[in-house]
Every structure is written in C-alpha cells, then in structure tokens.
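Quick question, first post here. What does this chain look like in 3D?
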Amino acid sequence: MVVKKWVAGDLDGFFALFIDNLLQLMLVAVLCEQVCGLPASLITHRILPGAALSILGGNLFYSWQAMRLAKTTNRSDVTALPYGINTLSLLAFIFLIMGPLYQETKNPTLVWQAGVFACLLSGILETAGAFVGPWLRRHTPRAALLSSLAGVAITFIAMGFIFQIFASPAIALLPMMIILLAYASRRRLPWGLPGGFVAVLVGTALAWGFKLLGYDFFTQPYQPYTFGFHPPQPVPTEFWAFFTSAKGWSFMAVIFPMALFNLIGSLQNLESAEAAGDAYPTRSSLLANGFFSLLAAVFGSAFPTTIYIGHPAWKSMGARTGYSLANGFVIAALCLFGMITLVLNVIPLEATLGILLWIGIIMTAQAFQEVPKHHAVAVALGLVPALAAWALVLIDTTLQKAGVTLVEMVPRFGNELYINGMIALSQGFLLSSMVLASILVFLIEQKFVRAAMWTLAAGLLSQVGLIHAYTLGSGGVKNSFGFWQAPSFTLAYLAAAVAMLLFARIKPRPAPSAGTS
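> Answer (accepted):
Ran it through. Tokens below.
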C-alpha cells in the first residue's frame, strides 16, 4: 500500500508536538541564562543548533520507522512516536549539575562543558541500555510501565498546565474548551479545521485583541527578533577532558539515574504505543534514542532527546507520520535561525496549554483502560510516588518564595505532613512506581515468587540509593548514592520478600464446595 505522508490529523498532531518542543526550548533559553549564567549568544549559537540537529534527526527516524510499520502491516493508521528534548533530564541537569557548578565557579564555559559531558554520558548509557531494554520490557507488567507514566502525566503535565490555564482564563480557558470539544467528541470542527489549530488561533487572537483594548493579559517576554543563521558546530576537543576529570565523574550521581529513568521512560512509551495499536521494535527504537542524544552533545547541546510521552493522544488526534516530519523541520528551522524568541513574542503559551492538558489526561486514562480490570488497583498504587514528587515540588517552591529552606522547616512539620516519607517516596519515583505496581500485580495473580523478586529489586535499589535515599541540606533535597544508603527500606523490603517466599510454600486451602457451611 502507499503510505500517505500527510493526513488531516497531522496538523493537530504537529501543533501538539510543536508546542511541547517549544516549551522545552523556552525552558532551555530562560533557565540556562537565569540559573546557569550562560550568555544568550552561547545558547543561541551553540546549544540550540545542537538541539536542532538531534530533534530533526530523531523525528526523521521515527517517521521512517512508522512508514515502514505501516507498509509491513498494510495499515493506514500507524502513528509515529513523538520525539523531543527530555524534560526530566533538562531540569535535572540545570538544577543539579549546571546551576550548582555556576554558583561554585561563575565560569559559564565550564558550566556548558559540564552540561555537554552529562548529555554525552547519558547518550552512551541509553545506547547501552538498548541491549537490556527488550528483556526488561518482557518481564515488567504493563500496569507497572503505564502507571508510572500516568503519574507523570496527571501531575507534572496535566495539573501544572491546568493551573496555568485557570490563572489566565481570558486567553486560555476558551482554547482549552475548544481542544476538549474537538478531541473528546472526536468530531471535526466546521470546514474540517483541526481543533489544535483553531485553539491556538483563537487564543492568539484573544491575546492581541485584549492588548489592543488596553488589557495586558499577554506580555511579550523578549526583545525584538534579530535575523541570523546559526549552523551546528562540533564542540572543541578540550571538552572531552571532562572524561579524565574528577569533577566530571562527580556528576554521575545525577547522570546515571537520569539515564536509567530515560531508558525506563522510553520503554514505558513503547509499551504505551503498543497498547494503542502500534508495536515498534524495542532495540532499534532505544538505539536511535541514545544515538541522537550523543549527536546533540557532540554539536554542543547539553540536553538529551527522547521518545515523548503521549503517543495515544497523538493517535487519537488522527496524526500519522507527517506531524513528526513537520515538527522536526520547523523546530530545526526555529533553532538554526534563532526564531524561538520570535514565536514566543507572537503566540501566548497560555493559548497552547490545552493541547498538553489533553495529552496528560489521555495518558492517565490509558493506564487504567489498557490493563486487565483487576490490575487497576496496581495502577492506582503506581500513581502515588509521582504524586509525592509533585507535592514535594509544590512545598519546596512555596518555602523558597517565603524565604525559608526545606531543611529549616522539616523539623517543624512534625507528623502533620510526614514530610520525610514524602521525600523518601519522591526519590527515584519512576522506579518506585514501577516496582510497587509490579509487586502488586504479581500478588494479585498469586505469583508470589515473582512478587518476591521485584521486592528484592526494591531492596537493592534502595540499598544503592536509586530509590528512597536522600540527604537534606542548605541546597535542599539531594540524591544519595553509594553503599547502604537507605538501610531501613532495604531491610523492610528484604523481610517482605522473605514473607512472600514463605507464603508461596503454603498450599492454598480448597474453596468450600456448594452446600457446605
């Protein structure tokens, strides 16, 4: 069959993916300057062009992969995997590596070098993970993979954006309702116009209309745009001196778990895509994921790229392969010509957030819909660690705005919030979510030995500090990696695993026969 490179739903899909990528690039532009001390010229001339190369290459690959699947299966409804900058890595690298290093050294070149090193090492680890990913995916219950993804979707995506929408109802609420009208009803708008396009158009028109009337609901965030072409350039060879630097390897406490989380997140997204009907090969998908992060680093970007959350949402919009191709080329052009500021000065972000809200709620719903009904309780348990992580962010942000630190306030919380438990649950929350949901799935299925193995895995992860372990100091909550980092959790999980193994040896009592009491 002939695979169409563009269908009507691709326009909606393009707007959703474009806005998602644009949000990440905005964070790069703002946070690298404000938190990491990087000059705007470095961001525009080196970091964004490197990101452009990675984003374009990844979107081309995943579009080709979808076309190949469509031809192989003789289907016309295959949707390419969405792809872009990894939000979790972006924030972790800025706040846990680049920002602290800038505060220590005030050297923006060294800060950029550290970010590139972190991105490169993350790409290497993700590429290596492609060879164990298929095994991990085969032995992990779908409820575990989808629930941790849903936890991120309902908290850091849906909740964060819906607050922003309701903070600016004049320009954001109507676009959100248009998105819900178009996507939830699954009906095309008049004249076949795509809902995402209409929502952005309406929000932009409202913002500029109110501005003309004297109501400043939309403040242009940047100075006027200056045209220029900024081609990607390989980083200088001295950057790789970080491989022999003790300073570089001291960041492994952040880089390794983030690479592991990225690998798990990609596996979850592949599982999500398969649940929606598009089964992509695990190894080649993960290899491409790692390779394009390596490419980003070699050409100066400090931020890995990854398969995005939300494939089912793009599929429900009617997007196929064209949306991914268009996103790759448009985002690359914006980065290479420094046009991110131009877009942000024209289109208010509030007008676009309904699309991201829809993606968040679709992913949450899918976690419950695409698992056996009796596994729903495991999905619910898997949401809890992400809720703890999100609640901790809200508390920490509130305290910072009040001029106090978390370390000052923890003793004063007492037993009102059990803040120490919240912090412990938030550390490595993607892993905790997956492990807890897996344990519960196998307990439900009465597969006690497999449940015990997952419980032992939880003990090992807490023992080395990948989950639950932390230190609390003047800089806030920090990961704690090494030997015997969370002994209380390790011993508790070990005891629970022993109990499950013992329980497996107990023969179940036969069910009472009919008529007996």
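The chain is about 70% helix and 5% strand.
The chain has a mean pLDDT of 86.
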